[in-house]
Write a structure and sequence with these properties.
5 strands, binds flavin mononucleotide, single chain, alpha+beta, Beta-Lactamase, 207 residues, 19% strand, 5-stranded antiparallel beta sheet
Length: 207
């Protein structure tokens, strides 16, 4: 409730988060390296507050708003499951939960059917990263959404993964450990159009 009330006054925030305002809304202020990532990476990005009840969104970039059709003030303070609907795969939700619930799991990539505000269905390849601080606690979850429906060219997913990779490299203090673990694992760069096609097939087999 507190989050939703505060979210009303959030509308003045444009692309760059206002540190002071965010400080009132969030349990943990957004570190500069995250702000830099959001300002410099031209793909869909979302940030959720891991310490707040039900892990609400605390920051989304313009690409996220244009992909989903929601304004920023409609998103901040709400859980990202608002993008889900009748065809969203229960198994994908479980896979997302596995990274949220397991402190040892730093990242996951999940294919899930989502809906824009207009009700239009789209296929989302979601990357989630746990941002662990120097004390080993999780402050945030970072999400990056790739709209498979809109990807016209075969290299789309790879380009997205490359941009995400470059963005993760910008996350240093205080999440150096997360960045190191993500960059060391080959997962991020191994995503390809073929992987996404396999995920789509697995998802359609459930229906
Ligand atoms: C940073 C972040 C971004 C997320 N982005 C999406 C998304 O784009 N689409 C989606 O369906 N779920 C997304 N989720 C997952 C949901 O918010 C939620 O965690 C998921 O549905 C599992 O929890 P539930 O079973 O309680 O719904 C995201 C979660 C986080 C933390």
């Amino acid at each position: 409730m507190f989050y939703l009330q505060q979210a009303v006054s959030f509308s003045s925030i444009a692309t760059t988060p206002d540190r002071h305002l965010l400080g009132k809304i969030m349990r943990t202020p957004i570190p500069t390296s995250i702000e830099q990532m959001f300002a410099n990476v031209n793909i869909c990005l979302s940030l959720a507050d891991a310490r707040a009840e039900d892990i609400p969104l605390c920051y989304v970039n313009d690409k996220f708003c244009s992909m989903t059709g929601y304004d920023r003030e409609e998103l901040i303070g709400r859980n990202c499951r608002l993008l889900q609907g009748p065809d969203s795969e229960p198994i994908s939700r479980q896979e997302i939960r596995s990274v949220l619930d397991n402190p040892k799991q730093v990242e996951n990539q999940v294919f899930i059917t989502n809906y824009r505000k207009s009700g239009e269905r789209f296929e989302n390849y979601l990357y989630i990263f746990r941002l662990i601080n120097r004390d080993g606690e999780t402050d945030f979850f970072l999400g990056s959404q790739f709209d498979v429906t809109k990807a016209k060219q075969a290299q789309g997913p790879d380009k997205h993964a490359r941009q995400l990779w470059n963005g993760i490299k910008m996350i240093d203090n205080p999440y150096m450990e997360t960045a190191r673990m993500v960059l060391q694992s080959a997962n991020l760069m191994s995503v390809s159009a073929a992987n996404i096609a396999r995920a789509r097939l697995a998802a359609s087999a459930q229906h």
